[in-house]
């Protein structure tokens, strides 16, 4: 699998130091969340007080072949949003998209267009493989009925499978 990043989209929320990033590869999308709220007051079981830095990170990977659609809302006075649908996941599930500011509109729109195109290509490939399988089944029926020979069946099957 090609692991080169095709697109990157970054959004930072000032409050709480929450950072989102979307990394788009040829075959998958990774939505990363980095949260560093800074210094938290933690009470230890010994009754002592300790200052502790806490950081929460998550990387959620979704394969483009699992996506069914992509939505894009351009940012203006409010944040924009890019999101994708995956069967079995709620549309608002973590890792199925992200918000961004107006200065990222172009990159986000390019990502949406890239994902839409990739989803359509995957659907076409799946449809084509289904139609090839159907054609081979029909040929098998013709062979079983004695309408075509084994040699004719094998030749046509190789053509359909592009071997």
Could you please describe the fold and organization of this structure?
The protein has a 4-stranded antiparallel β-sheet with strand order 1-2-3-4, with helices on one face. Strands 5-6-7 form a 3-stranded antiparallel β-sheet, with helices on one face. Helix 1 (105-144) packs antiparallel against helix 2. It has 2 domains: 5-122, PH-domain like (Roll), CATH 2.30.29; 123-160, no CATH class. The relative contact order is 0.13. The two termini are 23 Å apart. The model is unreliable at 39-52 (pLDDT under 50). It is elongated. By secondary structure, the chain is an alpha+beta fold. The chain is built from 2 helices and 7 strands.
Strand arrangement, major sheet: 1-2-3-4
Helix content: 25-40%
Tell me about the biggest sheet? 4 strands, antiparallel
Q: Please identify, by name, the CATH architecture of the largest domain.
A: Roll
- The CATH topology annotation of the largest domain reads as PH-domain like
CATH class of the largest domain: Mainly Beta
The shape, in one word, is elongated
How many angstroms separate the termini? 23 Å
What's the overall average pLDDT, rounded? 80
Query: Which secondary-structure class do the elements indicate?
Result: alpha+beta
The strand count comes to 7
Q: Low-confidence stretches at least 5 residues in length (pLDDT < 50)?
A: 39-52
Q: Report the oligomer.
A: single chain
């Amino acid at each position: 699998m090609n692991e080169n990043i095709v697109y990157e989209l970054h959004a930072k929320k000032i409050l709480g130091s929450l950072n989102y990033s979307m990394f788009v590869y040829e075959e998958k999308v990774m939505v990363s969340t980095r949260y560093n709220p800074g210094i938290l007051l933690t009470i230890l079981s010994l009754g002592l007080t300790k200052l502790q830095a806490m950081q929460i990170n998550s990387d959620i990977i979704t394969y483009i072949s699992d996506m069914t659609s992509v939505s894009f809302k351009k940012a203006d006075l409010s944040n924009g949003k890019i999101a994708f649908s995956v069967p079995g996941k709620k549309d608002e599930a973590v890792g199925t998209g992200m918000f961004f500011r107006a200065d990222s509109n172009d990159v986000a729109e390019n990502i949406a267009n890239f994902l839409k195109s990739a989803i359509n290509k995957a659907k076409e490939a799946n449809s084509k493989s289904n139609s090839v399988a159907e054609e081979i089944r029909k040929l098998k029926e013709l062979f079983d009925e004695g309408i075509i020979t084994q040699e004719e069946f094998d030749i046509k099957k190789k053509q359909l499978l592009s071997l």
